[in-house]
Write a structure and sequence with these properties.
3-stranded mixed β-sheet; mainly beta; single chain; 4-stranded antiparallel β-sheet
Length: 171
C-alpha cells in the first residue's frame, strides 16, 4: 500500500507500507520542493499563453493530480501557464513527472516527462486541416454518411473532437 502526502511549498512524498505490519503510525519526512518551469512556444518560437498542464503519472503511478474535479481534493498544484506561456510549480518533487498539455488553438501534447530544475521548452503545433473525398470503390459515387478519425502518435487532437462526421463523400 502507498500513501502520498502533498503540502504547499514541500515536495510530494510517497511512503510504502504493509497494512498488516505497520498498523500504529506511518511517518513522513518532507523535503522542500523544487521549481519546475516550462515555456510553451509555437513552431515559430512565439510564446503560447494559457496552456493547461495536466499531471499523468509520478513514479509510474497516478499518485496525485492537478485537475479540478467535483468531489476531489484540490491539490493546489498550478494548472495553467501564464500570459507569457510560462508555467511554474515552485514545490515540485525532484524526480520525473509525466505531463500532458492542452491549449484550444494547438494539438495536445502527451507523455512528456520532465524533472524540476532547468527551464524546459515545449513546442506545440497547430492542427493540420485535412480534406478529401470518400467514394464507393466500385461505382465512384460519394459515400453519403461516414466518420473519419485521425491517429497521430503522442500529439493528438483535443479529446472529443477526434472523430469527425463526413457526408456526401466529403470531409
Amino acid at each position: 500500500t502507498q500513501v502520498t502526502v502533498l503540502a504547499k511549498n514541500w515536495a510530494p512524498h510517497t511512503v510504502s507500507f504493509d497494512l498488516d505490519r505497520d498498523k500504529d503510525s506511518i511517518d513522513f519526512q518532507l523535503k522542500r520542493g523544487r521549481t519546475l518551469r516550462i515555456r510553451f512556444v509555437d513552431s515559430a518560437g512565439k510564446p503560447i499563453p494559457k496552456v493547461y498542464i495536466g499531471i499523468a503519472k509520478w513514479r509510474g503511478r497516478n499518485a496525485f493530480h492537478n485537475q479540478r474535479n467535483p468531489g476531489v481534493l484540490d491539490t493546489k498544484i498550478p494548472r495553467q501557464a501564464d500570459e507569457r506561456g510560462i508555467y511554474e510549480w515552485k514545490w515540485a518533487p525532484d524526480d520525473a513527472i509525466e505531463f500532458w498539455f492542452e491549449q484550444a488553438e494547438f494539438l495536445d501534447v502527451r507523455n512528456v516527462t520532465l524533472v524540476a530544475g532547468d527551464l524546459h521548452e515545449v513546442k506545440m503545433e497547430r492542427p493540420v486541416v485535412v480534406t478529401g473525398k470518400v467514394t464507393d470503390a466500385a461505382t465512384g459515387k460519394p459515400i453519403p454518411f461516414f466518420k473519419i478519425r485521425p491517429a497521430v502518435g503522442p500529439i493528438i487532437p483535443r479529446l472529443g473532437s477526434e472523430t469527425q462526421a463526413g457526408k456526401n463523400g466529403e470531409y
